Amino acid sequence: MPQPTPRHEPNLALHIEDLTVAYNDKPVLWDIDINVPPGVLAAIIGPNGAGKSTLIKAVLGLLKPSAGHIYLHGEPYAKQRRRVGYVPQRSSVDWDFPTTALDVVTMGLYGQLGWLRRPGRAARTKALSALEQVGMADYAERQISQLSGGQQQRVFLARALVQDAQVYFMDEPMAGVDATTERVIIGLLKKLREQGKTVIVVHHDLQTVATYFDFLLLLNVRLIAQGKTSEVYTAENLRAAYGGQIALLQTAQIPQTPPTVAETV
Ligand SMILES: Nc1ncnc2c1ncn2[C@@H]1O[C@H](COP(=O)(O)OP(=O)(O)O)[C@@H](O)[C@H]1O
Ligand SMILES: [Mg+2]
């Protein structure tokens, strides 16, 4: 009798065991264990070079770990790719590529359309509706190279939305965007959470992390802490993650003592 594929922690949106990733034999993620429950809006935070982008790329199978296992809703990425949406770091995208905003969003549908099937009217309608949700419908036919940074970011968010994924990964979606775009983005992320989706976001801004996110992963090569924001967003954990850079963070609203039980309930 064929054995069923083993499922690991199907109740977790993201489950990582003993993950180590190295570039040229230099480990940049070391023995990481992560458990993210479904339905949270989670931030990955940590200093520059902490391995945040590397973690997302490892989850999406874009690079090969030296060791470890990664499961999304209990299964490897290869089996879950249609249920996973990704918004890459803006700086890693070639914005000179000659394509319109609408094309970029429509490409997000290719996984559902299947190989060699051209997007038809239904796909176009879906893509336009996603552009509308991010306030970019008027720019559908505009070349992406001619959009501002914030507008490009919203187009990429629309592309992730049409994928209709269960788990989303976004790499610094709010870095370098204007206040309007930031409001649009955080509004959408909260809407995705309301729909029961899991959203995991690399976030650069400690000023907003505690108000935007209900779950945190503090990373600096090793995983420093993970859990509900109310439990792990402490001065001690931030110091452990940011080390000597903590002086730069003095202006951020870091609680000086761990929150008491009364504050977290
Ligand atoms: N393609 C690569 N080749 C070699 N080293 C890399 C590569 N990408 C990232 N690194 C290094 O790995 C470490 C983690 O990078 P990254 O995951 O981009 O950090 P973060 O996103 O937290 O700023 C850094 O020291 C970075 O220089
Ligand atoms: Mg990064």
Overview of this protein structure:
With 265 residues, the chain is an alpha/beta fold. It has a single domain, classed as P-loop containing nucleotide triphosphate hydrolases (Rossmann fold, 3-Layer(aba) Sandwich), CATH 3.40.50. The protein has 11 helices and 9 strands. The chain has a 6-stranded mixed β-sheet with strand order 5-6-7-3-8-9, with helices on both faces. Strands 2-1-4 form a 3-stranded antiparallel β-sheet, covered by helices on one side. 38% of the residues are buried. Bound molecules: adenosine-5'-diphosphate (ADP) and magnesium ion. Residues 52-53, 89, 171, 202 line the site of magnesium ion. Adenosine-5'-diphosphate binds next to α1.
Q: Which features does this protein show?
A:
265 residues, alpha/beta, Rossmann fold, six-stranded mixed sheet, three-stranded antiparallel sheet, 11 helices, 9 strands, 22% strand, binds adenosine-5'-diphosphate, binds magnesium ion
Summarize the structure.
This protein is α/β, with parallel strands linked by helices and 265 residues long. It has eleven helices and nine strands.
